[in-house]
Amino acid sequence: MEPNLARMKTVQFVAGEERHAAAILAILNEAIVNSTALYDYVPREPAAMTAWFQGKKERNYPIIVAEADDGSVAGFASYGTFRPFPGYKYTVEHSVYVEKSCQREGLGRRLMLDLIEAAKEQNYHTMIGVIDSANAGSIRLHLELGFVPCGTIREAGFKFGRWLDVDFYQLLLPTPERPCEG
């Protein structure tokens, strides 16, 4: 599904920059307050974005932004460390968020496709999506993109007065050509 360009005019998929910080933060905070996409309780402060961008920059992790023609951010995607041990150096955990009014327009798919390409270019081998078990839209998107379910942790989180299950999905990439230890 392609983005609804009639409503948004044009959408560019650009590298995230600090100028996108407030919009990315607004999308994250909406998810924290109103969904189980993030198992956080308290909205993040603007200062948190400085550290977030710095961490991505230091590790050369991409931030891909869907930017409307008026400069507003319709969504973003990124990845980061799966686990902080050397043996996991070819594995990343990703996130994709689409602004509530722009959901179901194909932006999540496009962001994920760009993120998958970035992971291949950076020679990662495994992408991991950690998804709330009730998030049918995200699960469907991941399955359509070739991710396979690889486990559920029951009652891993607690939010909105209930226990939450979390599902893990993975996509194996044909990279790197010559993996090595160390």
Q: Could you characterize the architecture of this molecule?
A:
The protein is of the alpha+beta class and 182 residues long. The chain has a single domain, classed as Aminopeptidase (3-Layer(aba) Sandwich). The chain has 5 helices and 7 strands, in the order αβααβββαβαββ. It has helices spanning 5-8, 21-34, 47-59, 107-121, 136-144; strands spanning 11-15, 63-68, 73-81, 91-98, 126-132, 148-159, 162-172. A 7-stranded mixed beta sheet has the order 1-2-3-4-5-7-6, sandwiched between helices. β6 and β7 form a beta hairpin. It is globular, with a radius of gyration of 16 Å.
Summarize it.
By secondary structure, this protein is an alpha+beta fold. Helix content is 30%, strand content 32%. It has helices spanning 5-8, 21-34, 47-59, 107-121, 136-144; strands at residues 11-15, 63-68, 73-81, 91-98, 126-132, 148-159, 162-172.
